[in-house]
Amino acid sequence: MTTVAARPVRREGIGSFLMDCATMTQRNLLVILRVPQLLLGATVQPLMFVLLFSYVLGGALGGSEYRQFLMGGIFTQTVVFSAGFTAIGLATDSREGIVERFHSLPMSRLAIVLGRTLTDALVSVVSIAVMIGAGFVVGWRINGSVGSALGAIALLVFFGFAMSWMGAVVGLISATAESAQSVLMIIVFPLTFISSAFIPSATLPGPLRIFAQWNPVTSVARATREAFGNPIAPSTLINEPVTWASSNPMLYSFIASIVLLAIFVPLTLKVSRGRVG
Fold this sequence. Notes:
With 277 residues, this protein is an all-alpha fold. The protein has one domain. The chain is built from 12 helices and no strands. The chain has helices at 14-34, 40-61, 64-81, 83-95, 98-103, 109-138, 146-173, 177-193, 206-214, 216-228, 244-247, 249-275. Helix 10 crosses helix 12.
């Protein structure tokens, strides 16, 4: 007489969902604590960008004034690149069969990915703290109020959280962690550098200028600069053109983050269901 393994009964209710999310977040944090080298990319890399851009580009683009402008772009670049941690983490778990094991358990599939993205959001907070310290070393200062500065940090973490769902899709469809990182870099590098993260968009030619003006990376960097009380553009460079996005950077950044979540959260679930029936 043969027996058929019973399919796991998935728990229902918001309480069970939150418990699943907490469990997955705790699991991912424990992995980081046991392998602290995973934090190198979130701490050393931002520190290197701050120092290199400040002293390599800073001398040619306005010195100390450029450093005030630069930091908003470095903050934004770092949270965008955090999507790579999500992609690599999920690709590694998928390759090792861990994601499939989680799918076989009576837990929410959304919680599996949400735990990953929440973990990477917490890592982004660490990265931002490291960059604030590095910024003060190179002469950058927060000239806005404490409330505005906290609002800027919240916006950065939220935008990074939204971007991490793009990384989740890439991680789930990639065969290896290396391919996930390569695919994501092809996306985030143009998104980051065709923007006002490091130079005003007015210096870019035609179509690139238009793309940069409406690129959410530009609006997040601008909103961060405004909240920290930093200059929008060094006096030695061309000022930003006025658009609705540049006039309302905080609102535009929030809307862009919501749109990213509306696109990639359902897409992540679709990809996840396609991996395991």
